[in-house]
Design brief:
It is built from 12 helices and 15 strands. By secondary structure, the protein is of the alpha+beta class.
Length: 408
């Protein structure tokens, strides 16, 4: 398989212009962990006073990197921090060797950046079950530190990619008490994407001043409404990590500020959508809306059953308005449902109601709608006030092609 697949048809036309975040600098290097001839390691260096929050995979087989990051959250920010990420190898299911790799990388970065090892956060993404050649990473750390630049966030986004077909970035500037606060983030993710906290690697930076515990609250809440609402293939990675760093360089205190929280959520939602649009082999971006459920939990269960169904996803890939597969997914979901109260729409096209196909529905109308690149599937269960929205993509031959020989 080629290391650089063709770009997703759902990709944006270009990487966004992400403004400089005061207090953070970036660098990348070609370490050759797996990929040759491309950057595969990124370093972010953060000034003293930076608060760091995070959410991580709940996988029972999570990597040594994830376990290490989880233990380090809430540390003293006075010495600054560093985040180092490699692509090509996940350092997962590597036992004590994985822990040793994390320790070696942290020690090297701490010495080179002048920060405590307790403030070095690592992530690894790629193949599971192969020992990480961490010496290739430690060998480039001094060069990374020498190359640190506040304008290199685009390069950082490229360095963390694996099967991604495009780099992902998003930004938001929000005015708080008359002063600008900037938030910028990058993400990687294409396959092994399912809601279980963050389901990818995500790094978000802001110049806002905020206490770590409050930042953690903002991050956790926003993640539940964004990254935990996307799915590509229903599989959860061993390496999922979302870290957010607030340098405080703007001097604007945002503790308890709703405008800041909303801006963070907006950045996360844009990144989450970009991950779905880069789903392996994806050609359609699909929003699944469920309303009228007995409660929000049932609505989410039903929405994910629709979004994760291979039969639904392959019908979407084939532009087949096979609404019976929606009925199937609702019925199997485990959420409370009543056949005769179910209503289904494809976009604004009423497809089914009252336990039967709608009198106004035509197969042509459904087929014409399915030709769109962006699709909305709406299902009302007619039982209560529960609602949920999740985002997914179609399932094509491209997904099989990418994953059948991923390790080669």
């Amino acid at each position: 398989m080629a290391d650089t697949p063709s770009v997703s048809p759902l990709a944006p036309s270009r990487f966004p212009d992400l403004p400089v975040i005061d207090g953070v600098t970036f660098a990348t290097a070609q370490a050759g962990v797996k990929y040759e001839g491309r950057a595969d390691v990124m370093l972010a260096h953060l000034i003293p006073g930076t608060s760091i929050a995070g959410v991580f995979t709940r996988s029972a087989t999570r990597s040594a990197n994830v376990l290490d990051c989880q233990q380090k959250l809430g540390g003293d920010p006075k010495h600054g921090a560093a985040i180092i990420v490699n692509s090509g190898n996940s350092n997962a299911f590597t036992g004590k060797h994985g822990e040793g790799s994390v320790a070696a990388i942290c020690d090297k970065v701490a010495n080179a950046c002048g920060v405590p090892t307790a403030r070095v956060f690592t992530s690894s993404t790629g193949v599971i079950g192969e020992r990480l050649p961490h010496d290739k990473i430690t060998n480039v750390v001094d060069g990374l530190v020498a190359d640190l630049d506040p304008k290199q966030i685009h390069g950082a986004a490229q360095a963390i990619m694996t099967t991604d077909t495009f780099a992902k970035g998003a930004t938001k500037v929000v005015k708080i008490n008359g002063r600008d606060v900037t938030i910028s983030g990058i993400a990687k993710g294409s396959g092994m994407i399912a809601p279980d906290m963050a389901t990818m690697l995500v790094y978000i930076f802001t110049d806002a001043k905020i206490d770590q515990s409050e930042l953690q609250h903002v991050v956790s809440n926003a993640s539940d409404k964004t990254f935990n609402c996307i799915t590509v293939d229903s599989d959860t990675s061993t390496s999922d990590t979302l870290l957010m760093a607030a340098t405080g360089a703007s001097g604007v205190d945002v503790d308890g500020n709703d405008d800041f929280s909303n801006a963070v959520e907006n950045v996360m939602l844009e990144l989450a959508h970009l991950v779905v649009k880069d789903g392996e082999g994806a050609t359609k971006f699909v929003e699944v809306q469920v309303t009228g459920a007995a409660n929000n939990r049932d609505a989410r269960i039903c929405a994910l059953a629709i979004a994760n169904s291979p039969l639904v996803k392959t019908a979407i890939a084939g532009e087949d308005p096979n609404w019976g597969r929606i009925v199937m997914a609702v019925g199997k979901s485990g959420a409370a449902a009543d056949r005769d109260k179910l209503t289904i729409h494809f976009g604004n096209v009423l497809v089914a109601e009252n336990g039967w196909v709608a009198d106004s529905y035509s197969e042509k109308a459904g087929a014409d709608y399915m030709k769109n690149q962006d699709l909305v599937i709406k299902t009302d269960l007619g039982l209560g006030d529960g609602t949920a929205t999740v985002w997914t993509c179609d399932l094509t031959h491209g997904y099989i092609t990418i994953n059948a020989d991923y390790r080669s």
